[in-house]
Amino acid sequence: MSRIIATKGKTIAIILDMVLELLYNVINEHHIFEICLLEDWMGLFVDTDWQYRGLQVVRIENEHIRVDVFPELGAKVYNFVHKDSDRNLLWHNPRVPPARVAYGALFDDHWSGGWDELVPNDMPFPAPSGEMLPDHGEVWSQASEWDIIEKSDDVIAVRFVSHGRVLPTRFEKTISLRAGESFCTVQYAYINLGATPIDFLWNICCPFEITPATRLDIPARRDIIEATDPWNTLKFNPGAEYDWPYATTPAGERVDFRTMPPEEAGVTDFQYLPNVSSGWYAVTDADAQVGFGMVFPTDVLPHISLFRSVGGWRGFHLVSVEPSVGYPYDLAIAKETGNAGRIEAGAIIEATVKAIAYGGVSAVERIEPDGSVVAGG
Known about the structure:
This protein is mainly β. Helices cover 8% and strands 42% of the residues. The chain has a single domain, classed as Beta-galactosidase, Chain A, domain 5 (Distorted Sandwich), CATH 2.70.98.10. The strands form seven sheets. It has an eight-stranded antiparallel sheet, with no helix packed on it. It has a seven-stranded antiparallel sheet with strand order 6-14-24-23-20-16-17, with no helix packed on it. The chain has a five-stranded antiparallel sheet with strand order 1-2-3-4-5, with no helix packed on it. The longest helix has 21 residues, at 10-30. It is globular, with a radius of gyration of 21 Å.
């Protein structure tokens, strides 16, 4: 671990080695998650030699962003840090720390936050065999195999692989980061290894902390409120449809979904934005002028599911923006209405997304396919 910055004999080298070793031990023993070692401060690198709360961490970092992945939680991206502002852009559950989860567990009770893959279903659903697909799918609650498939001065790529237990499937998620870029590229592949077609849902679930300064920019056309209200805090009529971004409450109040209600609102809503006009979204802290954006292919992920809690669901303040294969979250209804995905026997579905950290803007007009963020008014 030693790195000699200046040498005046063996004494300085020995002291520096001892200091670095001590720092390394403190980080591992006390779970100081946001501190990097001296050699981690600059440049492109991957670090796989440490844990957080007993979970293996794969860290990929360059000059602009830092990405921390938990392979044991379905390749959950727990941290996505914008280094210029020293800010993690993903929401963390303040009451549920990350921990290993039993396959088949309830998602909401174990949701520690971070970026999860919800596939091949959302709510529990019976597979053709009669066995139940677990809550929020087969990936999030089980460990992924992983390996570093590329490592150079220019690019690092790590592939994570999850296998279906109920369904004969393979789900691949390869995260790549290049030197000097403020985004990472994620290449997905979902493979049907069986002899019959598979109907499925898939949401790329990224939650973000919200405040009254949060701005949500999505090139949506329509907004459909989920037809059920399991939280009993819904402000809109279940099943109602609106032209994005505006909706009207039963009391006649006109609401702009791009902005957030007051923190004391105590509401929760779940919406579907079908067939967005372009494959991107942006979540910006307008006060800090820092945000997270994603670019995704609409031929594979044509919709966005939007879950928003403003003190409603369990008292949390967050919005989860989820590029989606289909809707609603009940796979049975998605199949009946022709809004589910399907993989034929032996086929593969592939998609490439970019996750972007940006600064210096309070609203976003659009994000280009190459990850360039264009400021809005």
